[in-house]
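A reminder from the course coordinator: this example appears on the midterm review sheet, so study it carefully.

Given structure:
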């Protein structure tokens, strides 16, 4: 009898151990399954400056710049897009356009944006020529301008229809295109002595109307890059990487201001630049941004696109966002 009891006891203990082991394994699998950042765009593509858009086909599209492995001083050559319905499984499209397709630039395929109007898709992008001498800046020959390309498809191929930049002075990059409810397109950029400016696009989206106009920012105008403008309810939001690193924002009831500064919603990481976009998809607001991470890299940290949920307070202000490994990996469950 004692022998039987001992056998039963051993069997129960083994069963309990196996059960705990299975639970641990299940938990490990669950943890592995929920990791969503950086976004899995496939292969060893290094992407940055993600610009999120939702078009009429109901998919999320993210347009990015493409970092080459261990590239020299952001010498970049082409642009990509990625599409998804669940923000976890992505289809790669591209390159959409390359500096080799341009007659007026041969380098600096930096942060793009995209728009849809007149039955066409538009890729608005910075590109340039020359070389930046970081040791002796007075010897620099680098120049950048803003181009715009068209396509019948959100995934291209895109064609430069104007054969040049929208303007040559001032030097400019980091374009953000916002189309208001009335169909008017506004272009915001980071430019030499011309930050916090806006210019209207012509209806054909191939030229600008008037001059770059300085906006009223309420008296606070720190160094910035990569503006992103969106609308939610009655408010417009002008967001940016303040000092190129910390994501901050202003609010207004007009796309051209006056703007009221509201502060930070994502802190800096690794004292490195950030570039973002904000878009609503299936009832959820999503923040796309990039992180500097060392993932199978031959030269340390490189840029990788990521995403988080974005939430608002009752008064429309943005709640602080933390970087997470989970990201938006549970998006499909959230929108069921």
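Designed residues:
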């Amino acid at each position: 009898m004692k022998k039987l009891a001992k056998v039963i006891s051993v069997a129960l203990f083994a069963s309990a151990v196996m059960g705990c082991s299975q639970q641990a394994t299940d938990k490990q699998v669950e943890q592995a399954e929920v990791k969503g950042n950086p976004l899995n765009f496939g292969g060893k593509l290094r992407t940055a400056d993600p610009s999120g858009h939702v078009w009429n086909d109901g998919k999320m599209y993210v347009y990015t710049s493409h970092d080459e492995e261990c590239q020299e001083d952001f010498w970049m050559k082409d642009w990509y897009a990625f599409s998804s319905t669940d923000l976890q499984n992505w289809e790669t499209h591209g390159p959409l356009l390359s500096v080799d397709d341009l007659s007026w630039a041969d380098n600096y395929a930096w942060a793009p944006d995209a728009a849809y109007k007149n039955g066409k898709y538009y890729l608005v992008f910075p590109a340039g020529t020359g070389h930046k001498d970081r040791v002796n800046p007075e010897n620099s020959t680098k120049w950048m301008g803003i181009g715009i390309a068209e396509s019948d498809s959100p995934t291209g191929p895109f064609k430069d229809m104007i054969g040049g930049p929208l303007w040559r002075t001032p030097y400019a990059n980091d374009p953000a295109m916002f189309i208001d409810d009335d169909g008017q397109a506004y272009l915001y950029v980071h430019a030499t002595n011309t930050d916090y400016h806006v210019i209207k696009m012509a209806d054909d989206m191939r030229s600008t109307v008037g001059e770059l106009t300085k906006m009223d920012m309420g008296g606070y105008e720190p160094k910035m890059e990569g503006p992103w403008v969106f609308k939610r309810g009655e408010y417009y939001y002008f967001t940016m990487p303040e000092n190129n690193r910390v994501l901050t924002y202003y609010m207004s009831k007009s796309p051209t201001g006056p703007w009221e500064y509201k502060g930070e919603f994502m802190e800096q990481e690794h004292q490195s630049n950030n570039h973002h976009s904000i878009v609503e998809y299936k009832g959820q607001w999503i923040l796309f941004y990039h992180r500097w991470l060392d993932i199978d890299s031959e030269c340390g940290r490189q840029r990788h696109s990521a995403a988080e949920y974005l939430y608002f307070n009752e008064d429309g202000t943005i709640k602080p966002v933390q970087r997470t490994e989970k990201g938006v990996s549970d998006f499909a469950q959230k929108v069921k």
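The first strand starts at residue 46 and ends at 54. The CA atoms of residues 161 and 207 lie 11 Å apart.
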